[in-house]
């Protein structure tokens, strides 16, 4: 089992920045990738950014150039630095982890709210 705990959400004005953190614990040796998803009311959950154990990254087109995902292996923590935030970035942001043998994300955090006001 893997436990994920997010932190760092909050309220910010458009153009501002936030950094989200996701601390992983448990059987973390089985994790091959971690990602940040977001879900806004009435919308489908979407993958915002992901990072593999080899530190390869990918981003949704909507956040490229504004968001950066990174990891600190010593702290078992993944970060999402969000700059130039827009009102449309408002959502619950969820951290997820994928096991070595999985095609999908298997473990989820509880989510943290990000609200961007215009």
What does this 3D model show about the protein?
This protein has 118 residues and is mostly beta strands. The chain has no helices and 11 strands. The protein has strands spanning 2-7, 10-13, 18-26, 31-39, 46-52, 57-59, 67-72, 77-82, 91-99, 107-108, 112-117. Strands 2, 4, 5, 6, 9, 10 and 11 form a 7-stranded mixed beta sheet that branches. A 4-stranded antiparallel beta sheet has the order 1-3-8-7, with no helix packed on it. The radius of gyration is 13 Å and the shape is globular. The termini are far apart.
Tell me the structural class: mainly beta
State the share of residues found in helices, binned by percent. under 10%
Q: pLDDT average, as an integer?
A: 96
Biggest pleated sheet: 7 strands, mixed
What separation lies between the terminal Cα atoms?
40 Å
User: Are there runs of 5+ residues with pLDDT below 50, and where?
Assistant: none
| Overall shape | globular
Q: What fraction of residues sit in β-strands?
A: over 45%
Radius of gyration: 13 Å
Order of helices and strands: EEEEEEEEEEE
DSSP strand count: 11
Summed up, the helix count is 0
